[in-house]
Structure formats: structure tokens, C-alpha cells
Write a structure and sequence with these properties.
Length: about 290
């Protein structure tokens, strides 16, 4: 069996769909708990993933390993590589005393900072670069977000649209699949989705995949049903304490800034022309 070219997590994501349902269930558990796999036995992994030991052993064989021990070594190398590249990821924050009148503000602020720090890891850094390369070369940049993530998609459109005419918004149309059917290999679909996922986003991703378009997925779990269709997965952490869109907003703003930097000649001129036009029309004043 041909071994994966990148790390084992990428390989599992790419090959998950061809496995049995039990093995896919195991894949989902492994993807979300890969930091702990190196400390488990076959029995422990089977129990935690709610599958049989036979499923675990067959999964090991499907990945091309002779033993579970060899597979655990691979996960250990992934974690070692991550920690070597990024040693200062914040793991906790100070608890606020109950009698602090600003407890809510402080607590939310610290939790958001923790989620941001935990999201910023070597995997995100590598995939961020890959995403920018796709956006830079794309014939069109198509944005799709549902529920609160529709607002993120619209915000992204507003930012990129100031200097780049390739951006298209799909979030507020009922004819999403009609648009996706017009995609080809030079188009990019950016999907913003956190659990629970909507079927319309999954359908759009599957159709874009069939059209050979590139997909950038921004999500919270590697077990998201769109991951195996995506060219690039930008995984962000979510908070168990508070709902927040800050990590996704931060990622979008970083993407827009970098995309603008790479197009600095044309983007700066377009923004200047826009500002001057708005001033001439008295739409903005200094």
C-alpha cells in the first residue's frame, strides 16, 4: 500500500470515505483525539471510539502498518513535530475571582484569547499558506456560509471586494447548486461552517468536488463531512464555555491582509481610487 505523503491526519481525512462505517466512526474519534492516541491500548481506543478491537486492528492494516504500536509511533511523531514548531501555545488562563465586578468581561476575553492561541498551531500555519496560494491563482473566489457564518462570508466579501473583483457571494441565494455547476478547476469555493453542519453546505461541497473546483474549508472539527472533499482545511478551535466568532474573523482578516499584500500593486491602486471616488461623491468626509 502506498504510504501518505504528508502527515497521518491528512491521510486519514483523504481516505476516510472509502472505509467501512465502523472504521469511519473510528476515524472521527481519532481525528478529534489524535493527541491521546499514543497513550492508548487497542482495547482503550476501541472502547472510547465505541467500536470493536477487530475494527481497530483492521484500521491499522488499512493505514499500512504492521502493528498498533507502529501506528502510535506515527501519532507521537506528529505531536512531537507540532510541539517542536510551536512550544508556546497557551493551554490555560487565570480564573477570575467571584467578587470581581468585571468577571464576565474578563472571563470572555480570556476565553477568546485561549481559543485563538490554541487555534494557532503549525497545521493551521501550513494550511493557511496553501489556502492563500489557491486564492491567489483562482479565477473566482466563491464564499458560502450558513446561519451566523453567513455574516462572516458577507464580511469577507466586503473586505476582498475592495481590491479584488473575483469574489462572489453564494450565502444568500437559493440557487447555490446552479452556481456551483458553473465551476471548473480554476474556481475556489470557501465554506465557513461549524458543527452542527448544514446539508446544503455538504451538497455544495460535493458538487464543487465533482466539478474539480478547489475547496477551502474553515471549520471546527476534522471530522466535518466536508473535509475529505476539501483541498485545504483550516481548523479552528471552539470554546466549551462561550460561543464566539472571533477566531474565524481573525483568520478571515489575516487571509484578506495577506491576499492584499500579494496583490499590493493593483489592490492599493483600486482602494485609493475607491476612496477618492467616495470623497468626490461626498459619501465620506475627512
Amino acid at each position: 500500500m502506498e504510504k501518505y505523503k504528508e502527515n497521518i491526519l491528512d491521510y486519514i481525512i483523504s481516505n476516510k470515505s472509502r472505509l467501512t462505517k465502523k472504521q469511519q466512526l473510528l476515524c472521527d474519534y481519532v481525528l478529534e483525539n489524535h493527541k491521546d492516541i499514543g497513550l492508548m491500548t487497542v482495547k482503550e481506543l476501541a472502547e472510547k471510539a465505541n467500536v470493536g478491537k477487530t475494527t481497530v486492528l483492521r484500521f491499522v492494516q488499512e493505514l499500512g502498518y504492521d502493528s498498533f504500536f507502529e501506528l502510535k509511533k506515527e501519532f507521537h511523531e506528529v505531536q512531537k513535530d507540532y510541539s517542536d514548531k510551536w512550544e508556546n501555545v497557551q493551554q490555560s488562563f487565570l480564573e477570575v475571582q467571584e467578587n470581581n465586578v468585571n468577571k464576565t468581561l474578563y472571563s470572555v476575553w480570556q476565553e477568546v484569547l485561549k481559543v485563538l492561541d490554541n487555534s494557532l498551531n503549525p497545521q493551521l500555519l501550513d494550511n493557511f499558506e496553501a489556502a492563500l496560494e489557491l486564492l491567489e491563482k483562482a479565477k473566482s473566489i466563491n464564499l458560502l456560509g450558513s446561519r451566523p457564518y453567513k455574516a462572516i462570508a458577507i464580511y469577507t466579501e466586503a473586505l476582498i471586494g475592495e481590491f479584488d473583483s473575483r469574489v462572489r457571494q453564494l450565502s444568500h441565494t437559493d440557487a447555490i447548486l446552479d452556481h456551483v455547476l458553473q465551476f471548473d478547476e480554476d474556481d475556489v469555493l470557501v465554506i465557513f461552517t461549524f458543527s452542527p453542519y448544514l446539508q446544503r453546505d455538504i451538497d455544495a461541497a460535493e458538487l464543487a468536488f465533482q466539478q474539480n473546483a478547489s475547496i477551502i474549508l474553515i471549520t471546527d472539527y476534522l471530522s466535518c463531512p466536508i473535509t475529505d472533499k476539501a483541498n485545504v482545511v483550516l481548523k479552528l478551535e471552539s470554546s466549551d464555555r462561550y460561543y464566539t466568532l472571533v477566531p474565524m474573523l481573525s483568520l478571515v482578516e489575516a487571509m484578506v491582509i495577506e491576499l492584499g499584500r500579494r496583490q499590493s500593486g493593483s489592490s492599493v491602486n483600486r482602494i485609493k481610487k475607491l476612496v477618492n471616488t467616495l470623497r468626490e461623491k461626498n459619501y465620506i468626509v475627512d
